[in-house]
Amino acid sequence: MGSKNKLKRFKENETFKNVFQPTRDELVSGEYALKGHWNETYFKNDNPLVLELGCGKGEYTVALAKRYPDKNFIGIDIKGARFWRGAKTTVEENLDNAAFLRTQIELIDFAFEKNEVDEIWITFPDPQIKYKRTKHRMTNSAFLKKYKSILKPDGVVNLKTDSEFMHGYTLGLLHGEGHEVLYSNHNVYKQEGSPDEVTSIQTFYESQYLEKNKAITYIRFKIK
């Protein structure tokens, strides 16, 4: 994507009422106005709140918002030019139950209050395979602690990935730390019983993986 195009998207994001772009300082000050008040201030209802972390173009956020009008969805990514597409679609289609937050995932606990979130989706994250990149792996112990701090006691996390490494690493960690694995599948499109919301929604890259016969894996779990 050219820098001109990126700038255009950044500018357009600023006009969308459903896009929020707090500064790092604003978040870490602990005084971010929407923290603990997303439903009350923005969505203006008390429906379940669902986050998609590393939402990319926002395809999953948009599809889930259409599928579940009685839930509120927030797609989160540091790359605003990328989620511009999802934000624009939700504005054009008047999807009032979807919003986008531009921030780093490691600041998630500064953007949401304890027990504010019902569910988290992590879709096709970078597996960060090299050992020195472990700290950036989105299902490592440090990240799980952050997710637990904002999830309700019965909140769940969904991981959908094309990376067998990420799937295996996460399963091993969940079992090793005593978390509760609710469902696990090594190939959601080949094995029966896969949840419909996992197989009926596909991102652009996912459809490319499937064309190459790459297995898509899925884990649903609770953090203890």
Verbal overview:
The protein has 224 residues and is an alpha/beta fold. The chain has a single domain (3-222), classed as Rossmann fold (3-Layer(aba) Sandwich). It contains 10 helices and 8 strands. The protein has helices at residues 3-13, 24-28, 38-43, 59-67, 80-92, 108-111, 141-150, 164-177, 196-199, 204-211; strands spanning 19-20, 49-53, 72-77, 98-102, 117-123, 151-161, 180-185, 217-222. It has an 8-stranded mixed sheet, with helices on both faces. Helix 1 crosses helix 5. The longest helix has 14 residues, at 164-177. The relative contact order is 0.14.
Q: What's the CATH topology name?
A: Rossmann fold
Roughly how much helix do the residues carry, as a percent range?
25-40%
State the end-to-end CA separation. Answer: 41 Å
Biggest sheet overview: 8 strands, mixed
Strand count? 8
Low-confidence stretches: none
- Tell me the name of the CATH class: Alpha Beta
Architecture (CATH level 2) name = 3-Layer(aba) Sandwich
The amount of beta strand, in percent, is 15-25%
Mean pLDDT: 93
Structural class call reads alpha/beta
Strand order of the largest sheet: 1-4-3-2-5-6-8-7
- Quickly count the helices: 10
The tally of domains stands at 1
- Write down the overall geometry: globular
